[in-house]
Amino acid sequence: MRRGDSINDEETDTEGIDGDYSESEESVVDKKIGFFGILFNNLSIKNLPKKCVKFTFITINTMTCLLGISTVVISIWMLADTTLTLRLTGQKLFVTILLIIGVFGASISSLGIYSLIKQKKKLMSTYIFFHSIFLGIIFFSSIMSASMFDRVIEKIHQDMKNTIIKYRSLDWVTEAWDNTQQYLKCCGIKSSNDWTYYRMEIPQSCCSKSIEHCLEMSDLIAFESGCLKSTYLMLRSNIDMLAIVTILISILSGASIFFGLGVKKRFKVSRYVG
User: Fold this and answer.
1) Is residue 107 pLDDT above 60, yes or no?
2) What angle do CA 208, 209, 212 make, to 5 degrees?
3) Which of 27, 28, 133, 208 is deepest in the core (most CB within 10 A)?
């Protein structure tokens, strides 16, 4: 009997220890859940001061508007570039995309600031709606970018083939090729041998040496890289830049929607008529 009682006492003690341990674990978990719940609740837009929400909203949209205007100015300047380099390198597509993004960003941001100043609920709803659509377009474009890039490269390759044979006959083609080769430090489509293949002398714009050595052009002093490869690398870097810009715009759009909803909820009832 004593041995049995001792065994039962040990089991009871063990269960007591396990029970205390499990209860302590549960209490720790409950505390963590409660902590994160309080933290999330404190981060809610409802708990932010009214002035803080409005100030943040105006700051984000002012930055977006200024960035959009700067993008529009730079894009128009690049599209109006008289060097005609864009015709061969395919940068026109990416510059056009930047132009559209800039116009959209500046317009919608201005709409958001105006709706806040005038406290127009319908305009704020329109602002939030267009920002939501824009986020969807960004998501769709990121999926389609890979296949579109391959098509752009193929089109550039075909344009180079069609224009290289007109190098001596059309002035804009001559200027485009010369500017492209000097800008990208390349020669021909795949190499300087392309000029020989099409029975033309290697242009001086292919020269990788000083002007004194460019009087008589040859493969030895021409740029080694072809313009198709250089264009591919340049466009790839442009896509990386666009990806970074897209991420930043997505973050700004998400923040704009978040604070736009907060501003909309804080409009006075007397000014709901918009």
Assistant:
1) yes
2) 140
3) 208
